[in-house]
Amino acid sequence: MAVDLLDARLIALLTAEPRLGVLECSRRLRVARGTVQARLNRLMASGVITGFGPQVDPAALGYPVTAFVTLQIRQVSGHDPVADRLALIPEVLEVHTITGTGDMLCRVVARSNADLQRVIDEIVAIEGVVRTSSVIALDTPVSYRVLPLVAAQVSAGDRGGEVHKKQGTKEGPSKAGPGKAGPSKEGESKNFAKSSK
Fold first, then answer.
1. In the predicted model, is pLDDT for residue 94 greater than 80?
2. 147 lies in a domain?
3. pTM of the entire predicted model
C-alpha cells in the first residue's frame, strides 16, 4: 500500500507518542479529526499499522543478554511443531524460518550468559531440533525501526509524481487555489523530518 506525507507524519507521531488520541493527533497535524480517523482506519485495515501496544525493554525486566540462535531441525515433521514448542519458552522473543545453513533463527534473551545456557538447553531439548549455534549481541547501534522505510516510500512517491509532471500528466488544480502557493515538497519533507524525531 502506498503512503503519502500525511500518513507518514501520522505514523511518526504515533510511534513517538502512541498514547495520543485522534483529537490530539488532528491538532498536532493541523488536519480535521475525521481525516485522521479515516487515515488510521485505512492504515490499520491494510495492515500497515498493526497495533499500538507499549514497547517493552527486556533489559529493564532483568534480561540484559540478547542472543540469536540458529537451529537446524529434522525436516520430517516440518517447522510448525518446533515453532509451537519454541513459543512456549518465554525468553524466545521471535522466530523466523530462514534460508542458508540453518532452518530457523530465534532471537532470545537471558538474565546472564549462564542463564543463556539454560535457555539454549531448553531449545535443544525440543524434539526435532538437531543442532544450534548462537551469537551474543554486544550492542544495538541501530534498533528495530520502520520510520526510515516509511519516509523512503513517501520520497519514492514524490519522485513518481515528478515523473508524471515531466511526462505531461495532469496533477489537477492546487488545493491552495489559483494564485496561492501551497506547501512545497521541500517544506513537507522538513515537517515530516521534525515529526519523526
1. yes
2. no
3. 0.74
**Do the domain assignments include residue 161?**
no
- Starting at the edge strand found earlier in the chain, the sheet holding 104-110 runs 92-97, 104-110, 65-73, 129-137
**Whether 124 contacts 73, CB under 8 Å:** no
Confidence band, pLDDT 50/70/90 cuts, at residue 157:
confident
How many domains, the chain?
2
Specify if 92 maps to a domain.
yes
Q: Kindly state the helix (H) or strand (E) to which residue 97 belongs, with its residue range.
A: strand 92-97
Residue 155: predicted pLDDT = 85
Picking from 109, 114, 70, the residue whose alpha carbon sits closest to that of residue 91 is 109
Long-range pairs, 26-32, Cβ under 8 A, ≥24: 28/195, 31/6
d(CA 100, CA 72): 10
